[in-house]
Amino acid sequence: MAALTLALDAMGGDHGPSVVIGALKQALNSVSDTHFIVVGDETELTELLTKANLLDHPRITLKHASQTVTMTDKPGYSLRAKPDSSMRVALELVADGSADACVSAGNTGALMTKAYFTLKTLPGVLRPALMSAIPQARGGSAFILDLGANPVCDSDTLFQFGIMGSVAAQQVLNIDRPRVALLNMGSEEIKGNDVVKTAAQLLQQSPQVNYIGFIEGDDLFAGKADVIVCDGFVGNIALKSCEGLAELLLDNIRTNIHAHWLTRWFVKLFYRRLQKSWDWLKPDHYNGASLIGLRGVVIKSHGDANERAFLSAIEQALEETQQHLPSRIRDRVEDVLLEQE
Amino acid sequence: MAALTLALDAMGGDHGPSVVIGALKQALNSVSDTHFIVVGDETELTELLTKANLLDHPRITLKHASQTVTMTDKPGYSLRAKPDSSMRVALELVADGSADACVSAGNTGALMTKAYFTLKTLPGVLRPALMSAIPQARGGSAFILDLGANPVCDSDTLFQFGIMGSVAAQQVLNIDRPRVALLNMGSEEIKGNDVVKTAAQLLQQSPQVNYIGFIEGDDLFAGKADVIVCDGFVGNIALKSCEGLAELLLDNIRTNIHAHWLTRWFVKLFYRRLQKSWDWLKPDHYNGASLIGLRGVVIKSHGDANERAFLSAIEQALEETQQHLPSRIRDRVEDVLLEQE
């Protein structure tokens, strides 16, 4: 039997199951010792697996699910009306111990709601958070959380995000004492709202975290922190704004290149270099985002993910599982709660 | 006598009064019919004006102020301890009618606090807002507010920002029925927190504003809205994150260019094109940000502004003054309040 088992929601994402099966084929080559449970419409998946010569592969199990969560389904609706969706079934495989982790490229809101409902939070954890790695100027990555699981957070929740992010940076990014910062509208202590100010005090007082203070938006990619904490509203808008701007900026640069025959001539060579910069700046697309604080590993792949991007999400799920991220977070949160008693 | 009078805080900004005097010299050529009151240390300014051959210029008045607000002064401290700062004196010239508008490149927090204290908000206006133009994909600009004057906003305040931004887009951007959107973490009605949801209802119900719904961060530059409304915490972090990312992205592109002798050869030609894209994406630097909702025009120039950027801030102050932005906002807010009665 394989050491790890991964449940793949094959029906999520903008491009449907063919991307998931394509990524799975690559994963079977690159990843050893892992079993995959592919969840979704049996007829459609059988056809795709047959085409890919994977139908009776010893490391693949096909698990039928009669429903599919669409990208426009509202979270509450999908929870009530789609109990047999591929997403829900994949999450339940993690909940009942049949799988170690789950990857889905489906509707983010639905995934968060279903994951919260199905897997529950770890003991002591107030709220799960959506966390992603973002590139840093001097190389390497930093984790940023929350990216949209919680539109409103209190100080205790932000404090816990600091703890959880710190554990994740240690385990996944291999950083010894991760520098944890709060995202704020100014770096001075008096700046911001009461929630971040109180969260700053909590982080400052805790020996469990290497808190370095506030950072501003323009330091998001500056390599000043390893873990950047904010509420889901701010995190979502900050990261999506960056995506919007990068797209516009590259469009603009392309236009400027095309405006001159000499630069146009170089466009092919240059375009790949640009593309490299751009891919690097779409961590959600490239790496997948983790839903942490739950009793299991759940990775949200970008809905627009191609095979390579979905493969990255699979690799991320394996990494977090091998590093026992949920139980490490549980232990640390327990330590913090014991200290506070 | 000149038609308009502008008060310039000559001591603000990272580069001190020489940038302001340099910009003033350019403004005297490009702008007719305007008188300038230069506020700051008399000795230092006399020396600089003498060097620039501007000492007895008929359109310049020198106004001494014994104190200077530093970039690190806390707003409350600067308000209490520096009543004779160049920033405060420049604002008071607007308050007492000696000047039509004021431009400062000084400490943003101090400027907002002093402006609020000295000029007060317009009748019916709950809170002033910091507003800036940002470039849009298909050309043109959109206004975004608030960018940091209010770390926490209630729904009524966001609603008023929509009204004020709408008036500004009509008067300054010459857009007939500006499309007003709320920045949210999702475009569906159920997304976000209670404050934006209630603000959405208020905007939807008002005939005074062309409300088009929520937009997400990645649409900030997409040309979907003419006025983008959010609280100061979110706006500040969104725009600064974009600045941070753009800087990193261009750094990265430059590195990729430099890595190959063929592209390196083109770097001089290309650098200027890149620089063009980049300048265009730093609206705060390029245009200055407006503090609106007050009984007078106040423009915050970027602290790092060079002469050309400071000149843009001067031009923006003149534009808003000529368009009678404060009284237009007052009238519209009055209309809205009458409707709500």
UniProtKB/TrEMBL annotation, chains A, B:
Predominant location: cytoplasm
Biological role: Catalyzes the reversible formation of acyl-phosphate (acyl-PO(4)) from acyl-[acyl-carrier-protein] (acyl-ACP). This enzyme utilizes acyl-ACP as fatty acyl donor, but not acyl-CoA.
GO CC term, one of those recorded: cytoplasm
SUPFAM superfamilies: Isocitrate/Isopropylmalate dehydrogenase-like (SSF53659)
Molecular function as annotated in GO: phosphate:acyl-[acyl carrier protein] acyltransferase activity
Pfam families found in the cross-reference section: FA_synthesis
Entry's family note: Belongs to the PlsX family.
Gene Ontology biological process: fatty acid biosynthetic process; phospholipid biosynthetic process
Catalysed reactions, as listed in the record: a fatty acyl-[ACP] + phosphate = an acyl phosphate + holo-[ACP]
Broad EC category: transferase
Protein's name according to its UniProt entry: Phosphate acyltransferase
Highest rank taxon of the organism: Bacteria
UniProt subunit comment: Homodimer. Probably interacts with PlsY.
Recorded metabolic or biological pathway in which this protein acts: Lipid metabolism; phospholipid metabolism
Keywords on record: Acyltransferase, Cytoplasm, Lipid biosynthesis, Lipid metabolism, Phospholipid biosynthesis, Phospholipid metabolism, Transferase
Keyword Cell membrane: no
Subcellular location: Cytoplasm
EC number: 2.3.1.274
